[in-house]
Design brief:
seven-stranded mixed β-sheet; alpha+beta; 9 strands; Aminopeptidase; two-stranded antiparallel sheet; 7 helices; 242 residues; globular
């Protein structure tokens, strides 16, 4: 398992290393990381796609992923990474989502209350289903925002939405999150060639973010963006094509 040929056939989500493989990898000095999604040690490479579905998803739906203490999958403490929400994020998730300012330009209405059970259900929903992909942006292990891609009836098109917690705005995290997500999406799902987004007319920061990431203003009718949620048809349409 330590030579290059073996490595190329055993990627991060091909399953955890058994005791013999782990001992051999450590003896050879191979780079390892503990994967909290698979509950075990795996090979770690900088160029691996962090939006790939975890092996555990192939074995059945998990209500919440467990976070295990130890060496994180991404060792760079200040780098923004994308991952799924996990159970240890519950308190932070509630704090971020309970901020009234977060909902000013959100498509959905703010929940009347966000108790632990509701937050747990929302996190579980984000990891389930085949109609969307949700990733949390994490810096130093702490969630700062979320990006979501909703798939449409047209397999080549999808709709992007995102948010950044109030305490983390103005630091460039939103642009990093969206750009990284788009880059990984180009590798994992190259068949998606058109990504739409809708933005509240007063949300100038979000408009600048999308333009910086390669989106262009576009007529809503051409995108098929029907009124939805708080968008009554008056939000601005943007499109990213490749």
């Amino acid at each position: 398992m330590t030579d290059q040929n073996a490595r190329t056939t055993r990627d991060r989500f091909d399953g955890v290393l058994d005791a013999e493989e782990l001992a051999s990898a450590r003896a050879s000095g191979a780079r390892l990381a503990y994967c909290p999604l698979q509950q075990g040690w795996v090979h770690h490479a900088e160029d691996e796609d962090d939006t790939a579905p975890p092996l555990s998803w192939q074995m059945g739906v998990l209500r919440l992923h467990k976070q295990v203490t130890g060496t994180p999958v991404y060792a760079r403490p200040q780098a923004l990474t994308l991952r799924v929400w996990v159970e240890d994020d519950l308190a932070t998730y509630r704090a971020l989502m309970s901020d009234p300012s977060l909902w000013t330009f959100m498509l959905e209405e703010r929940p009347g209350s966000l108790d632990e059970d509701t937050a747990r259900a929302l996190i579980a929903l984000s990891t389930e289903g085949t109609h969307h992909k949700v990733r949390v942006a994490s810096v130093g292990g702490q969630p700062v925002g979320q990006v979501r891609l909703e798939y449409g009836a047209n397999s080549a098109a999808a709709e992007l939405s995102y948010w950044i917690g109030a305490a983390h705005r103005g630091k460039g995290y939103g642009r990093q999150m969206v750009q990284r997500f788009l880059d990984r999406l180009a590798v994992r799902k190259p068949h998606i060639t058109r990504i739409a987004a809708r933005v509240h007319p007063q949300n100038l920061a979000s408009q600048r973010l999308l333009l910086a990431c390669g989106f262009q203003p576009c007529d809503r009718a051409s995108l098929g963006l029907a009124p939805r949620g708080k968008d009554k048809g008056d939000w601005d349409g943007f499109v990213f094509t490749r």
